[in-house]
Amino acid sequence: MFKRTTAVNKILKLKKRKRVVYGGSSAGKTFAIIPILIDQCIKTAQLEVSIVSESIPHLKKGALKDFIKIMKSTGRWNENNYNATDRKYVFFNGSFIEFFSPESVLGSRRDVLYINECNRIKYEDYIQLAMRTSKYIYLDYNPASEFWVDTELAKEDDVDFLLLTYKDNEARPENVDADFKNFIKKAEEENKRGLPITSYWQNYVRVYVHGLRGNVKGLVFNNWHTIKEVPKEAEFIGYGQDFGFSSDPTAIVGVWRKGEILYVNELYYELGKTNSDVIKDLQKLVVSKIHTIVQDSAEPKSIEDYKRAGYKVQGARKGTDSIRKSIDTLQAFTIYVTEDSVNLIKELRTYAWKLDNSEKQTNEVVDHMNHAIDALRYVALNLINRPKWAMY
C-alpha cells in the first residue's frame, strides 16, 4: 500500500465537484491524488478517469511516471493491462485511467478528470474538459502567479480549495527540509537588505515553500514559445552543455536556427552522472562528433575528457558581462522550445533578474534553476551571431 500521508487524508475530505489542491513543492499533491484515483478505480467498476497535463512529454516525466511507480510499488501493476500507445491502463473491473494533453483527446468524455499543473493549460481547454466530465474534477498547481483558477473558479460555489505544503507530505525526500531551510535563509537575507517581497528568493519561498500565491517580476525571457518538434528546414548550430553532478544536473541542449528564429531541444538533464557516464549516454543519444559542443569553460579537466572521447568541444567564451551579452543575443531572436524540453521550460518560467530595493531590475540574474539555460547561453556566446538589426 502507498503511504497514507497527511496530504492524502486532507484531499479525501474534499467533497465538492471541483477539488482544487494547490501549494508548495514536495507537498505530495500528485502522489496523493493518483493513489486516490487508483483506489476509486479498483472499488468502482467501469469508472473512466482522465489525467491531463500541458503536453505528452510533461505527462511522461510527471504524472504518468508517478502512476506507474505507484502501481508497481503497491503490487498492482500488470503489464498486459497497459496500452503504451494510448497511455491507458485498464483495471480488472473495466475501470481505466488514461493520460493525454488537451489537444489530443479534448472531445472525449469521462467520469473523473485530474488536471496536473492546471496553471499550464488554457482556461478554454479546461472548460471543454470540464463540461465533458460527469462526476468530479481534481486540479493541482504551484501558485506562481494569478490565473483562471483565481479569476474564474474562485467565484463558483461548487469548488473546494486545499492548501498543502511539504509538511503535509511525510514521504518527502530527506533533502527537502535542508534545501528549504537554505531557501528561507536567502529570503531572509533579501528582506534584511530591504528588497521587495517580489524579489526572487522571497517570492520563491512564498510559492514553493509556503504554497502561497506569488508574483514573479523581472523574468529574463518573454520571447519563447513551445513547439512539437524542430522544423526539418532549420539549420543545426551546435550543442551546449552545463556540467553537474550531485546537487546540480548535467544539462545538454541542441540549438537550430532559421533566420531570426532559434529552435532548442533539451537532450539531457541528469543528476549524479560522471563525465564517463554522460559520454556513454551521448553515444546512445547519437550526439554527433562532427558538431561542436560548447561547455562550461570553468571545468577544463571535464572538457579534456570529452576531447579524448572524440567529441568536438570548446569552452564557452566567458568574460566581462558575458551573462548579459549572451542573454542580449538570445533576446534578439524568437525562440521555440520543443515540448520534450520539460526542464528547460520550467527554468524559463522562473529565470529572473535580481531586483533592487525599489523593485527595479539589476544587471544580475538569480543563479538558480538555470542549468539548461546556461547550456543555451554557452551556444549563444560561441556560435550565434545576433541579427544585424539588433547590433545597433
Description:
With 392 residues, this protein is α/β, with parallel strands linked by helices. The chain folds into 3 domains: 7-167, P-loop containing nucleotide triphosphate hydrolases (Rossmann fold), CATH 3.40.50; 175-209, no CATH class; 224-391, Nucleotidyltransferase, domain 5 (2-Layer Sandwich). The chain is 33% helix and 24% strand. The chain contains 13 helices and 17 strands. It has an 8-stranded mixed beta sheet, with helices on both faces. Strands 9-15-12-11-10-13-14 form a 7-stranded mixed beta sheet. Strands 16-17 form a two-stranded antiparallel ribbon. Helix 10 links the parallel strand 13 and strand 14 (312-315). Helix 11 packs across helix 13 (371-383). The chain starts with 5 loop residues before the first helix and ends in a 9-residue tail after the last helix. The mean pLDDT is 93.
